[in-house]
Write a sequence for this structure.
């Protein structure tokens, strides 16, 4: 689990959040910024993963945080605040997508099927990727593009489980699907992403990447 | 147990999550040792999971935070003082009231911690008979400035001072001035710790 996700589980943070929430409910609304600051990026990332569009993602993220502010009295402390925020964001982003679809002549369908086994297409040897890779904007861009190519139902599951670090059960609950469906879609999302990225990481980007196969600096 | 490539691909997610029973895990490991393709798929999938889990993957557009604040501020109720504001105001009011209370409290007025010269009316003879009513001032019985005479209580000056009463600036000033005159003492000495106006001082002199 990445450092950020781990720190978000911190009991001290939870207790501080509870205190902030009480004060905001009692009228200190300006403290809301402090409450949401650690989660703004995650809210935006969730919105972006579903909408696949920066403008829509920002609008969805703002709308979701605004709703969180307006409905803060409905938040129950037994839940995690971050999970509650992500849930609102998922709902908001899905609503936005539904509106978009209803205005189109033909609905967009996810052509990939949950059923049946997925066969990997590319067997390029990718091996280990140093985390410094992500310092490079073009690599982050490639990863974002690959994610955008997934069908919505795979993207949603992948983002909640692998990027937001929710559990399989939390992901299922948030998307209102079974845990079996989460597992199936997650496997497919991971394999599809690997297929999309393998040609690059396995050789296609070797002229750009000093760590590519056969030329590892470590 | 021997597993096929298809079975390995089916189990990759569970394998990476650690959600796989030991027998099957051993069979997958055995298969990976022999199968280059499946090893590539397993390694690549592990990389996918690790790369996307990195927080650097999450980038927000420039100015995102500022625009968010603007939108939230536009939607928050305005001009309503927050309870924080009220709390500050209430605390300030309490401080002011508290200051008066402290200044007038018997614990301070009769506080033995204060220097002798700072005690109000410390020159008033402790056994002088005085009267008090509902205020914070004690008087000589014939003072014309006594209000609420129906509440009048008689006691000695020492007791009145201990209870936090301060000497009346009219009658007791006059009393002490007369005593001073008779003893050739100045009112400044007599009224140590009490307020003496210029007229009274002049009268005393």
């Amino acid at each position: 689990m990445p450092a950020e996700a781990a720190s978000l589980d911190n009991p001290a943070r939870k207790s501080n959040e509870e205190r902030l929430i009480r004060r905001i409910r009692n009228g200190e609304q300006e403290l809301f910024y402090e409450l949401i600051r650690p989660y703004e990026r995650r809210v935006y990332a969730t919105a972006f993963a579903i909408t696949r569009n920066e403008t829509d993602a920002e609008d969805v993220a703002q709308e979701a945080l605004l709703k969180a502010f307006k409905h803060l009295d409905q938040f129950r402390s037994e839940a995690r605040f971050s999970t509650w925020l992500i849930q609102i964001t998922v709902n908001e982003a899905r609503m936005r997508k539904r509106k978009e679809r209803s205005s189109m002549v033909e609905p967009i369908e996810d052509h990939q099927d949950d059923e049946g086994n997925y066969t990997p297409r590319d067997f390029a040897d990718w091996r280990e990727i140093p985390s410094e890779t992500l310092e490079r904007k073009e690599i982050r861009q490639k990863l974002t593009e690959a994610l955008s190519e997934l069908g919505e139902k795979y993207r949603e599951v992948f983002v909640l489980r692998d990027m937001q670090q929710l559990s399989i059960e939390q992901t299922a609950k948030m998307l209102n699907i079974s845990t079996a469906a989460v597992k199936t879609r997650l496997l497919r999302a991971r394999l599809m992403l690997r297929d999309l990225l393998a040609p690059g990481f396995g050789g296609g980007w070797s002229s750009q990447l000093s760590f590519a196969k056969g030329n590892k600096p470590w | 147990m021997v597993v096929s490539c298809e079975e390995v691909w089916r189990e990759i997610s569970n394998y990476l999550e650690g959600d796989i029973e030991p027998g099957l895990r051993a069979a997958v490991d055995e298969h990976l040792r022999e199968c280059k393709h499946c090893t590539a798929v397993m390694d690549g999938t592990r990389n996918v999971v690790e790369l996307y889990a990195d927080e650097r993957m999450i980038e927000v557009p420039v100015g995102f935070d500022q625009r968010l604040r603007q939108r939230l501020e536009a939607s928050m109720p305005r001009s309503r003082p927050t309870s924080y504001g009220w709390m500050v105001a209430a605390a300030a009011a309490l401080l002011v009231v508290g200051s008066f209370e402290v200044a007038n409290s018997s614990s301070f007025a009769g506080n033995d911690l204060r220097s002798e010269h700072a005690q109000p009316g410390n020159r008033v003879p402790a056994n002088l008979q005085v009267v008090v009513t509902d205020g914070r001032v004690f008087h000589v019985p014939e003072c014309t400035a006594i209000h609420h005479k129906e509440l009048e209580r008689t006691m000695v000056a020492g007791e009145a001072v201990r209870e936090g009463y301060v000497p009346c600036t009219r009658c007791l000033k006059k009393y002490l001035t007369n005593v001073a005159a008779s003893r050739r003492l100045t009112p400044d000495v007599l009224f140590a710790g009490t307020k003496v106006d210029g007229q009274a001082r002049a009268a005393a002199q």
Summary: Chain B touches chain A through 46 residues (CB under 8 Å). Confidence is low (pLDDT under 50) at residues 79-86, 97-118, 189-205 of chain B. Chain B has ten helices and four strands.
